[in-house]
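Example A, followed by Example B.
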Amino acid sequence: MKPIKCSSSKCSKKCKYVVRYKDRAGKLKEKHFHSYKLANQFVTEETIRQETGLLSSEQSQKMTLNEFITTVPLTKGNETTQAVTQQLYDKHIKDTLGSYKLRDISRLDCQKFMDEDLAGYSPTSKQKIKRILDTAFKYASSDGFIVRNPAENVIIEGEMREREPQPLTPTQLTEFISLWDEDEYLSEYSNVVVALAYTGMRPQEMGALTWDDVDLTARTLDLNKVIKKDPKGSQFDSPLMKSKSASRVLAIDDELLARLRFRKSTNPNDKYVFSSSLGHQINLNNFRGRYFKKAVLMTDLPIERPYDLRHTFSALMWSRNVPLGKLSRMMGHSSVNVTQQWYGNWYREADFSGIETLEQWKEQQA
């Protein structure tokens, strides 16, 4: 790489030299100069950049988010997670904020992106995309390209809760389970409904449960993996759960125990506990779209999705006077605060135990 005399007929008479070089993506480019001094100065800066990975001040001013993103990891996950994250970036950010100059992106730009470009997406989806921006901007800040993360204070409407918990009452739950047991088509997965309602498992945790995780004698379920999807949409088991607290051991309720014992005795060679009639791992998309949707259409009960059965479990535990802290551990929440946000209103009642104890003490002293 060195300055050479420019012979292009497209250049003005003032152009004297040209430097041909490769950019950060490896593409061949050229830059024109009025003098050898300026051309040679550019060669020196470009050589330093290639050897050290640093950018000239001119290049850093012009760098877009798309150009910067190629230099940093968007996630520390495995290859599948990296591929999914890159897909999210390419689909939602590349042609929007990605084309902006890195130094020009403001908090208002990020907020407008969330409110307008991602309008209609759920708070959960928006949060995933925001995490990508947070990662990119944190690297840009640490590398000195920007002063602060412009996505840090972006507000995602409805992020904390999309809807109120919608549990079934014990009577309604019995009716819903009977619907599955008595229907020839739905009965294949009636045990799934019972398991979700009487353990509080997330559907992804339930689907990954194998018989190696079950102790029917001790009556325990060891939750240590979840179903995830690869970029092509195929399911696979992953030990990377939602949080560290999600890995937990649950007790098997009486309502579920007999069903599991019968299932084990009639299908001893199945790998997964809640498998299909052919012994295959449950396909969560098919379960929701074909089976659960059919059940919802067959009843007037206030239930819309499998996650409502997780809320039903929480309501059952509350009715059995399970303390909030213990319920949080059973649900696999990352903290009691998460449980409080979802179910705190159920626990808003006066506790007279201390007063009753004091009154008893006064009577004994009298």
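Example B, a separate protein, is given below in the same form.
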Amino acid sequence: MGIKKKNITNLIRAYTEKNDNAFRDEAYKIACIFSEDGDDTISEYIISLLSESMSLVPQMDRCLSDFFRALPISSEPLFLPDEISKDLLAVGRLINEHQEKVNKFMFMGGPGTGKTEAARQLGRITHREVFSVDFSQIIDSKLGQTAKNISKLFDDINSMPNPENAIIIFDEIDSIALDRINERDHREMGRATTEFLKGLDDLNKKVVIIGATNLKEQLDHALVRRFDMLVDFDRYTEADLIEIAAQILSTEIKDQHKAISGIGKVSRKFFKSLGILPNPGELKNSIRVAVALSEKDNPSSLFSEIARRVSPTTRLDEYNLRGLGFTIREIEQITGTPKSSLSRKFREKDDNAKSN
């Protein structure tokens, strides 16, 4: 087959753009080409250099088709409500102890609820490599080709040389497996869904499959039934989001600045005052940017940046904060106004209210 110009240009482009994931993916493709051409020594050497962890022995699982993309193992903290965390621990235990009896899991929930990140964390916990299926490579406008691609996809999965070392995540599985009885669904996609169901029925039991969807109500019921365990990620209460926001803020401050004394307590009250918070994925991005743009060791700058991104309509008014139960010390932290000035303003306002 031989290395093509495209492989070299892709490798160089990824290097110059400092895109580590793209660089690694292209390097693995080149290693596979060497293997297919009979040069196993150089192929194994390249793969050993690219191995992400000593706990993961380099495998030729990397020589999968373009339907797959390797996801880096995540070491970042994953903030989840207790109920979801318990379910993920149960999934990890099932993978480790009953992998040939229970191997298909469905993660359901809105965007930014942590489904893909949870799959990456499971890879770390269970010492497996995580591969994401790229459905843009599978869905084809040519009649019948999508079903053929799905058949090829499952052939690739079942022929993996070390299936016990892999987790395959079907991210946005709804893009290919919507309800077949939906009249708005094209007949072609109905055939694709049928082929997908067949692939799940014939799946190698040593491979762990995780389906992830934002549209759980629209999934084909026959597909959902084929998964051994469903995990609902739409279980964030208001209190959960406030606590998660405070934990994210504390982590980001430690990573980018030095810790700000006493910020934990005031940050929880502050996030509660912002009203409805977004899902953790969006929340994390907003807080990370706010911390990066804020002045070091200046809480008032930090809170202002967070409010602007998380709740743009919120005004950090000192009188409003007082009405919400913030202490003068906390209002000073949030607004940057000295306590002496705040005390004087509040006293004058109270005196005026009494006189009227």
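On Example B: The longest helix spans residues 238-256.
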